[in-house]
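Researcher: Next sequence.
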Amino acid sequence: MGILSFIDWVVVGLYFLLILGIAWWVIKQKTETTSDFFLAGRHLGWFVVGTSIFASNIGSEHLVGLSGTGATDGMALSHYELQAWCLLILAWVMIPFYVRSKVFTMPEFLERRFSPLARTLLSTVSLVAYVLTKIAVGIFAGGIVLSVLLPELQFMGMNSFWLGSIIVIILTGIYTALGGLRAVAYTEAIQAIVLIIGSMFVLFYGIQAIGGWGSLVDTVGSEMFNLWKPIVPDGVSATWAPIITESQMAWYFNDQYPWLGMLFAAPIVGLWYWTTDQYIVQRALGAPNEEQARRGSIFAAFLKLLPVFLFIIPGIIAFALAKSGTIAEMQQHMIGADGEVIRENAQAAFPMMVAYVLPVGIRGLVVAGLLAALMSSLAGVFHASSTLFTMDLYTKMKEKTTDKELVWVGRIAVVAMIVIGLLWIPVIQGSRGLYDYLQGIQSYLAPPIFVVFFMGIFNSRLNKQGCLSALIVGIILGLFRLAVDTPAFLMDDFSYTEGSFLWIVNNIFFQYYSLGMFVICIAVMVGVSYATAAPDKEKISGLTYQTLTEEDKRESRASWGMKEVIWSVLLMVIIVVIYLYFRG
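Model: Next structure:
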């Protein structure tokens, strides 16, 4: 059927049997307590922690987005993947506090440090954001993959986008609801391995198809391998000016980045996501101790470098194959009459590589990897949403509960996520504008959350009033920018009066706006905290650097040795080497 042969379908079938077998084995284990269901009984070893973090991050939207931007802009967005160093901040700075506090969620840590209201506010915002962004974006990107790989799949009037999405959503939701984090983490570990191996085949056969690395560079030009290109784009090399694109949210496919925004704003989003987001950090919380959590995070940092080679470079290869006419179908789909890549079609770069470059059998393995990416990202958001709702919101609504009740509430919450995912399908099918719009939300969500977590740990004088003020101001600023941007996405011919206040807000480069939010949130948090009473030192003992006891310090120091230091230094060396090598 379509581009898949019988052998490919056999391989895909074996993949599903493997995942179902692992899920069934895990489901048979105990999930009676909240620790079992939501944190895998805190028994996850470093390998599972690391691979699970990687698999949660690399969803089908990365395959679509990163390979697409590779085809259009080359190495431009590798900057975001090279933020693997943020995981070292999780490993060395944040994990000691998280593990020591024995929390289930990130908002719960915020309650320990500041107040219950801060916990409720962050949980609510995070839950809404997960539903609006991670589920919707994951399904959209998965739909693109399925529609390319299974174009002829039809059943009861439903196309491949519908059928594939429904099957994957329901299957993923079932093992997430029954097995909890243990099922999610162990299946993600296998899915990560399948995805990595499959993507390596795409890279290998792609380079072979274009005639080697030298031929690739000659075909697309050395500028496609220039990591520094987006930092100082043409026309603004001597200014600090933001780049105004025809769509402010089209940043995911745009190669024009002012270097000031990339240098200072991008790490804000990176550190928020990798060190404070429940979706990612929950895996580290499932480790038995600080040592395993730290090693898993360091391992995940190394895995995080792989997308540069497994997704972005295959995207460049796809452009080369299309531009050179090596594969006529790719040329017809991706190259316009002007000889340039068609940006909206570039999203199909990776699945088209799978369809036209890979041999029979290997193609089935990579399709399994693509499905793994979709399933792992959905499993992660289903379980993270379930944990936030159950442990942060439900326990506030009903204080006297049993572990058994909370586990069942968690399962019901997963079922609710499945229903929401299914309801999203008709909304997002073919809605590229919505996809870009939702991708941009994190830039306006990150600053206040990043500020309250990091400032809270490094400065014990900051209090609950400062935290709440920073969160509220930051959320309002983010929602305001989204409200200003929304009409431009709903109406193609909409524009604000040039020079007006709303026009200025709409035309501020998104990274600069995010950076402005960051500065304002710091000022608000510090100003309000120092204008009000200091927090009780006993209540925040062990939750800030200034309140660590000697025992806390000894335990943390005993959890790492030279191996962890050497691997961390090696990661930074590799990142520097990549930056030095890819200069065009």
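Model: The longest helix spans residues 160-210. The chain is about 70% helix and 0% strand.
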